[in-house]
Design a protein that fits this description.
Blueprint (H helix, E strand, L loop, with lengths): L10 H21 L9 H13 L2 H28 L7 H16 L7 H18 L2 E2 L2 E2 L6 H17 L2 H31 L8 H13 L3
Antiparallel strand pairs: 1-2
Helix pairs in contact: 1-5, 1-7, 1-8, 2-3, 3-4, 3-5, 4-5, 4-8, 6-7
Length: about 220
Amino acid sequence: MEQQVQMSERFRVGALLAVAGGLLDAYTYLQRGGVFANAQTGNIVLLGVRLAEGQWAKALHYLAPILAFVAGVLAAEWIKSRFKEATAVHWRQLSVGMEVVVLLLVALLPHTMDALANVAVSFVCAVQVESFRKVHGSAFATTMCTGNLRSGTERLWLWLHTGEREHLTRAAYYGGVNLCFIGGAALGAWLVGVMGLYTVGAACIPLLVTLLLMARRRA
């Protein structure tokens, strides 16, 4: 199976991206004002709550990362449409390269610009989740865990019900990506105490390794 799967869909790439995703979530929560910038469900709920309360300024606070996430998806799709046929570089490499540049800029933002930092991280996570959507042909997310948990549990049930080893393998992939996300979050929490605002730069390391893997073999 390994030879039949392009590099961008291999488990090692999904694992690296999940480490980065977990680290970014821990970073924005612990270092940028208690915000989870990866997934937007909480922001959408809080947007609705603030609108119901008539707190327009606070509503805009939650609307900003939502719009940044939308912009990130659009950016990933634009890169794909513009460079899908490029031969010198794969469009996913351009997506990851953009992530690295934005995250390095986030590291330079002071606490007075936490809102902008969270918006930038939301944008990056949207680019990532839109650009890398599969591991070994199955739908995955590397910046959030709920869908992976559901799909992994479903595959586990199918293995228990049918005994087909392929279902167990898929369940292990889902579980492995989620464990890497947890590991990234734990690493981020530890690094915050050492590096502070610059912790976000550590997320660039698994992203750069991903770039090298894709450079060695067509993404």
